[in-house]
From TrEMBL:
This is diguanylate cyclase. Its EC number is 2.7.7.65. SMART domains: GGDEF. The keyword Transferase applies. The chain crosses the membrane at residues 52-72, 84-102, 123-141, 147-166, 196-219. The lineage of its organism: Bacteria, Pseudomonadati, Pseudomonadota, Alphaproteobacteria, Sphingomonadales. Keywords: Membrane, Nucleotidyltransferase, Transferase, Transmembrane, Transmembrane helix. The keyword Protein transport does not apply. Residues 264-393 form the GGDEF domain. GO terms for molecular function: diguanylate cyclase activity.
Length: 393
């Protein structure tokens, strides 16, 4: 039977639900401890921003519509500040914030700005919820007993709309639910009217249920992001050497090129091992694996400043660097040749190999690969002729 792929938290990609026994309280603690993988915070922010972008205009439209209905339904039984002023305030805020997010829908923004806008949205939502909570409490005590439940019902509808639309921001969603509903729930719970007590406790039950659903939704969203990251890492990592593969080289180049707005130049070193096939044939495939792993470690240590160190396939490696001077590149290639040429212990033997290195500079990855490949084979041809000449493009 095929087993579902799971991430480190025990979430399955097949059903997007907790399979590792993560309880509701554990999910709620996860929301407040912000325990997502630190390396994935930017991806979580981007996912939250995208979902808020899709939902917030609808949310504020719903807030404005609910405020209109509240003003209409309250009639003359409420004082003017409850009947007119606060509903109009909600309508204006709804139109304003909905319009702000609608205008942002086609913008391309950096993670830092996304984070700032999400904090801003959370703050506005909490302020609106607090105003709604106070409004409800005042309206509850200022109106005739027969219509007291009207204001709590409307603020509950607004709070539920906000929590549903902002469920990818769990702290904001849960916080605004508490801030908006707590005053009216407490007031109804301490009322002498049994029906109002029942409504108050019923609203509290719904709020607790909603907090659990929001926590579960967020935990599932984070787990899905983590699982996608792990699958992406598997797809972009060479299993033997743990270096990046050719796909990842392209991805890293594109990301760096985009970040530098296409104005950067790069240096690419292509490395091909000498005598690897002979060592592999003589000592076996296990020895060949050790040689590739040790070589990869040596290249990685010498190229910690690289944008990407990749195994392209077989015994061929590539190092993508920000553009360097010819002198610095020659020094780096000399250090790589010396490091790769050091004996590699295997069982009772020492395996000695060497490396041919081709170099190219430019701003297009395909051209870099072709140029470094030509330089690499020119060096190998020169070595075969015995003149020791190295070539570069």
């Amino acid at each position: 039977m095929k087993q579902p792929i799971q991430n480190r938290r025990g979430y399955s990609l097949d059903d997007a639900s907790p399979t590792g026994g993560l309880s509701w309280l554990a999910q709620l603690r996860q929301v407040w401890s912000d325990s997502a993988d630190r390396n994935l915070h930017d991806e979580v922010i981007a996912a939250q921003y995208g979902r808020v972008m899709a939902c917030v205009p609808l949310l504020y439209g719903a807030v404005a519509a609910m405020a209109i209905l509240a003003a209409y339904g309250s009639g003359g039984e409420f004082q003017w500040q409850h009947h007119i002023f606060l509903p109009v305030l909600f309508i204006l805020v709804g139109i304003w914030r909905g319009g702000v997010w609608y205008r942002r829908r086609r913008e391309k923004v950096r993670i830092a700005k996304m984070r700032k806008r999400l904090r801003e949205t959370g703050l506005v939502a909490l302020i609106v919820a607090a105003i709604g909570g106070v409004w409800t409490l005042n309206a509850f005590y200022d109106t005739v007993e027969a219509r007291r439940v009207l204001a709590p019902i409307f603020v509950t509808l607004i709070a539920l709309s906000g929590a549903i639309c902002l469920n990818s921001l769990p702290r904001t969603a849960i916080g605004m639910t508490v801030v908006a509903l707590a005053p009216s729930c407490v007031a109804m719970a301490f009322s002498d009217d049994v029906a109002l007590k029942a409504v108050g406790f019923g609203t509290l039950v719904i709020a607790i249920l909603l907090a659990g659903m929001i926590s579960h939704h967020f935990a599932t969203m984070v787990a899905s992001i983590e699982l996608r990251a792990e699958l992406r890492e598997l797809a972009e990592t060479d299993a033997l050497t743990r270096l990046s593969n050719r796909r990842a080289l392209r991805s890293r180049f594109d990301a760096d090129h985009a970040q530098r707005k296409g104005k950067a130049a790069y240096s690419l070193l292509m490395i091909d091992l000498n005598a690897f096939k002979a060592a592999n044939d003589r000592h076996g495939h296990a020895a060949g694996d050790v040689v590739l792993q040790q070589t990869a470690d040596r290249i990685r240590k010498l190229c910690e400043d690289a944008i990407c160190v990749a195994r392209l396939g077989g015994d061929e490696f590539a190092v993508l660097l920000a553009r360097m001077t010819t002198k610095a590149l020659n020094a780096r290639m000399g250090a790589l040749r010396a490091a790769i040429a050091r004996p590699i212990p295997f069982e009772d033997n020492e395996i000695v190999i060497g490396a041919a290195i081709g170099m190219a500079t430019g701003s297009d990855l395909s051209q870099l690969l072709r140029g470094a490949d030509r330089a690499l084979y020119a060096e190998k041809a020169a070595r075969d002729r015995g003149d020791g000449t190295a070539a570069a493009a």
